């Protein structure tokens, strides 16, 4: 009976999406015998520094992940997960904390379930490792080397958003996004006539959300600025780099904070959102030896 109730709270599809691999129904039922369901009170309820190894899957409500300075890393909703880094002590990941919203319900999958599955199915280990790294954007490896500013032409810019995320997948329906042929032709035409999407900010604190609207439209996605403002936790001072990055990832983009000179930024995949003038954001669409095309949500 308890197993039937558990199956109603977390589905096989949710479980497989969390693992990045399609388990059989028998394997899923076996896992359900050991999972735990939690309804934490509103507020900070979990510290990754001393947490039991395992993964939390959000069943209902929202949970916000915070770094050691209480800065927002990401806002998670039903179907999202966190805690993957606790499975990889060798990864030397930076721990984060979790804050519960109203009516948050979680499914906790302990490491005792996950470690045997990771050993049996390497795809699961690779997927969970990638998820753990995605919460640690400051980690550096050969595939994610930060671009350092040069002594000349230095810009106080941070590249936040580049291209839609392409996540590794194995026997599952992925949310990864690929531009279709029509959009690729459209991008080429935009470069020829130099006309790119523009969205004006609605208030002095909306520049980050407005930039995210523009980049989304470039890739054929349409999102409400109000929704993006909420996801990025915009207040009267605007959005933080971490908040904007979390918002971008939550709608399917990959993010990589990079401090770069103009020369180095030109080598990156554009468009990108650049942080400049203290708390302002603009979109950099194109950089050539003779000109730079940007969209400033404050002035056009």
From TrEMBL:
Stored CDD domains: CAP_ED, Peptidase_C39B
Organism per entry: Nostoc flagelliforme CCNUN1
Record's protein name: cAMP-binding domain of CRP or a regulatory subunit of cAMP-dependent protein kinases
SUPFAM superfamilies: cAMP-binding domain-like
Domain Cyclic nucleotide-binding: 55-135
Pfam families xrefs: cNMP_binding, Peptidase_C39
Superkingdom per UniProt: Bacteria
Gene3D superfamilies: Cysteine proteinases (3.90.70.10), Jelly Rolls (2.60.120.10)
Gene Ontology MF terms in the entry: ATP binding; kinase activity; peptidase activity
Keywords of this entry: Kinase, Transferase
Record has Glycosyltransferase as a keyword: no
Recorded GO CC terms: membrane
GO biological processes: proteolysis
């Amino acid at each position: 009976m308890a197993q039937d109730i558990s199956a109603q709270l977390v589905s096989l599809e949710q479980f497989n999406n969390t693992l990045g691999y399609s388990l059989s129904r028998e394997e899923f039922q076996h896992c359900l015998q050991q999972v735990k369901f939690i309804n934490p009170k509103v507020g900070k309820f979990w510290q990754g520094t001393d947490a039991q190894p395992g993964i939390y899957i959000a069943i209902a409500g929202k949970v916000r992940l915070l770094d050691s300075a209480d800065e927002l890393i990401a806002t998670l909703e039903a179907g999202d997960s966190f805690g993957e880094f606790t499975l990889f002590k060798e990864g030397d990941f930076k721990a984060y904390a979790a804050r519960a919203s109203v009516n948050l319900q979680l499914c906790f999958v302990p490491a005792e379930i996950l470690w045997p599955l990771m050993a049996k199915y390497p795809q699961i280990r690779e997927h969970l490792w990638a998820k753990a790294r995605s919460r640690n954007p400051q980690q550096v490896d050969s595939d994610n080397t930060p671009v350092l500013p040069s002594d000349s032409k230095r810009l106080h810019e941070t590249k936040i958003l580049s291209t839609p995320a392409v996540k590794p997948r194995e026997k599952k329906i992925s949310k990864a996004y690929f531009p279709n042929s029509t959009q690729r032709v459209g991008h080429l035409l935009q470069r020829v006539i130099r006309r790119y999407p523009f969205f004006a900010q609605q208030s002095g604190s909306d520049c980050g959300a407005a930039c995210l609207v523009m980049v989304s439209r470039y890739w054929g996605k349409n999102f409400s600025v109000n929704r993006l403002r909420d996801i990025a936790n915009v207040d009267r001072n605007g959005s933080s780099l971490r908040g904007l990055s979390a918002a971008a990832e939550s709608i399917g983009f990959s993010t990589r904070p990079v401090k770069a000179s103009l020369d180095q930024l030109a080598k990156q995949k554009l468009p990108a959102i650049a942080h400049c003038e203290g708390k302002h954001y603009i979109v950099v669409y194109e950089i050539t030896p003779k000109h730079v095309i940007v969209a400033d949500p404050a002035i056009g």
